[in-house]
Amino acid sequence: MERFVIAITRTCGSGATSISKLLADDLGIEMYDRKLLQLASDDSGISEALFARADEHMKNSLLYRVSKKVYNGELIPPESDDFTSNDNLFNYQAKVLKELAERESYICIGRAADYILRDYPNVITIFIYAPLEKCIDKEMERLGIGRKEAEKHVLTTDKYRREYYKYHTGREWEDPYNYDLCLNTGKLTYEQCVQIIKNYLASRVG
Q: Which domain holds residue 106?
């Protein structure tokens, strides 16, 4: 089979991480999520802690919600005062995703990978979602919290992901036109989702 990338975007509590792990094990490839921060840190020389803090900072940034900085592939040089800016940290994550796509097949969760790799061949873009109540139930069980707290967590996380995606891509996060497949885990088991993705992958890549 040719080299490929599966870029997964997901709503909170939809089970996308579990599906991705099953799929990665089945296909014998790597899955990148938080691990991408370590790779970007190694590549840039910027502390991994800065990458992690940038994630948290942007979740609470009003500027993030009302502005836009669509990714165009450029990197800010080390001599610049903006070298460790949130935008440049995103740029280095994007750089790592592109370099990985040149040498291996992998799965990436989030990070706007579908947009970053849009010009690469054999990139499969997938949006995984579920009804709100199902997502709340999943997060209650996963985090050991009550329904009200779980609902707040799901809605807040999805709001952040929606804004993150819009900020870096200029596109709407939940627009089905952005993706090759949209899978509703309220109607499908994780194993069924894995099989659907594998079938689609085989039809696209061979």
A: 5-14+32-205
Q: For residue 151, what is the domain's CATH number?
A: 3.40.50.300
The predicted-structure confidence for 4-35, as pLDDT tens digits, reads as follows 999 999 999 999 999 999 999 999 999 998 77
Token pair in block for residue 135: 């997502």
Contacts 24+ apart (CB under 8 A), 32-35: 32/97, 32/100, 32/106, 32/107, 32/108, 32/109, 33/108, 33/109, 33/110
Percent of the chain with pLDDT strictly greater than 70: 77
Q: Does residue 59 fall inside a structural domain?
A: yes
> What does the DSSP 8-state code read for residue 142?
H
Residues 6+ apart with CB under 8 A from 106: 5, 6, 29, 30, 31, 32, 100
